[in-house]
C-alpha cells in the first residue's frame, strides 16, 4: 500500500470521526433545522404575548379535521388583537394567537407504525392575521393568517414538535368560518398534515 493511499484513508477516517456517518450527518442537520424552527415558533409567540392585554376579539371555533380521509374533532380558542395598517397600503395586520386541540383517530394501516394516528394533539400558535381594504368594503371580512406553532403528540399528520398553521377565513361581527391547514412543510416526515373546516362564535372585547 502506498503512502498516498494511507494518507487518503487517514483523511477519510478523520472525516468519518468528525461527522460520524452520512446518516448521522443528516440527523445533525435535521436537528439543527428543528432547533431553528423551534426558535422561530418561540419568537412568533413572544411577538404576540405583549399584545395579549389589547385583545379585541375572542373566537371559539370547532369543526372537523381530516388527515387523508380520516376525520377527527378539532376545537380552537383564538385571540385577535389590535389591528394596524401596513404603511400607506390598504393592508392591515393583527397579532393572532391560538390554542387548539385535535382528537386522535384509529386508522388501522398506521396502528403499528412508529407514528400512529391515535395521539390527541394540543397546539399553541402565534402569528399574524392579514386583511385588505377599508371598513366599507365587502371583502374586508376575508382574511389570511399564518402562525408558527408548537404542539404535543406525534402522529402521521403532525410528526414534529414544530408546525405551521395557515388559515383562510371570513370574520363577521359574531361568527366566523375558516379553512385551516397545519403541517411542517415536509421538513420532517411523515407529514400528512391536518386540514379542517371550523365554524366559530366571536366575542368582541
Question: What can be said about this structure in brief?
Answer:
With 205 residues, the protein is an alpha+beta fold. It has a single domain (3-204), classed as Porin, CATH 2.40.160.20. The chain has 2 helices and 9 strands; from the N terminus they run H-H-E-E-E-E-E-E-E-E-E.
Return Rg in Å. Answer: 22 Å
| Straight-line distance between termini | 81 Å
Give the C-level CATH assignment: Mainly Beta
Instruction: Report the uncertain regions.
Output: 2-19
Order of helices and strands: HHEEEEEEEEE
Number of helices: 2
**Shape field:** elongated
Residue share in β-strands: 35-45%
Give the name of the CATH architecture.
Beta Barrel
Protein structure class: alpha+beta
What is the total tally of β strands?
A: 9
Largest sheet: 8 strands, antiparallel, barrel
List keywords for this structure.
disordered N terminus, 21% helix, Porin, elongated, alpha+beta, 205 residues
Topology of helices and strands:
Layout: H1 3-19, H2 22-48, E1 55-67, E2 70-81, E3 84-85, E4 91-102, E5 121-132, E6 142-151, E7 162-171, E8 175-183, E9 194-204
Amino acid at each position: 500500500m502506498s503512502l498516498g493511499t494511507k494518507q487518503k484513508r487517514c483523511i477519510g477516517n478523520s472525516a468519518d470521526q468528525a461527522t460520524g456517518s452520512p446518516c448521522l450527518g443528516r440527523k445533525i442537520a435535521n436537528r439543527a433545522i428543528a432547533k431553528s424552527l423551534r426558535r422561530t415558533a418561540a419568537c412568533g409567540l413572544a411577538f404576540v404575548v405583549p399584545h395579549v392585554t389589547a385583545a379585541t376579539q375572542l373566537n371559539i371555533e370547532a369543526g372537523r379535521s381530516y388527515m387523508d380521509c380520516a376525520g377527527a374533532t378539532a376545537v380552537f380558542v383564538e385571540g385577535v388583537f389590535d389591528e394596524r395598517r401596513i404603511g400607506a397600503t390598504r393592508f392591515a395586520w393583527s397579532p393572532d394567537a391560538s390554542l387548539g386541540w385535535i382528537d386522535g383517530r384509529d386508522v388501522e394501516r398506521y396502528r403499528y407504525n412508529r407514528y400512529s394516528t391515535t395521539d390527541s394533539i394540543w397546539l399553541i400558535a402565534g402569528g399574524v392575521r392579514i386583511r385588505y381594504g377599508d371598513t366599507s368594503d365587502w371583502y374586508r371580512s376575508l382574511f389570511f393568517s399564518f402562525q408558527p406553532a408548537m404542539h404535543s403528540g406525534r402522529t402521521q399528520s403532525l410528526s414534529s414538535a414544530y408546525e405551521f398553521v395557515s388559515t383562510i377565513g371570513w370574520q363577521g361581527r359574531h361568527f366566523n368560518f375558516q379553512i385551516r391547514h397545519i403541517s411542517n412543510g415536509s421538513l420532517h416526515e411523515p407529514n400528512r398534515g391536518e386540514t379542517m373546516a371550523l365554524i366559530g362564535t366571536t366575542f368582541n372585547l
